[in-house]
Amino acid sequence: QDILFDFAKRMGFYDEFIAGMGKGNNFQWPEDATDEIARTLKTIGMKGVTAQRLKKQQENWHLFNSSSLKGTGEFSKEYYG
To answer: ∠ CA(58), CA(60), CA(65), 5° rounding?
Structure first.
């Protein structure tokens, strides 16, 4: 991502490049980019994917079954991913 951001700065379209992330110059990589992808995925029916949810699941991967991806404990109503 650093290479991509540097390229955008050098080519003069950095502001336009990050404008789609909704926060202008105050975005946080990769969370805001993940949220932007999630907003796009909603158009094809994939709902519930947020940077916060994915990060929380990643930090608690041990609470998910490795074959079914079904969660246990506080994640009992979720599947990994």
So the answer is: 95
pTM over 0.90: no
Tell me the three state secondary structure of residue 56: helix
Rounded-to-integer distance, Cα 36 and Cα 12, Å? 22
The stretches in the chain having pLDDT less than 70 are 20-25
Give the residue from 18, 21, 19, 16 showing the smallest Cα distance to 35: 21
Query: Which residues, 6+ apart, have CB-to-CB distance to 15 below 8 Å?
Result: 24, 25
CA distance 20 to 57: 26
Instruction: Output the DSSP codes for 27-69.
Output: --TTHHHHHHHHHHHGGGT-----HHHHHHHHHTGGGB-TTT-
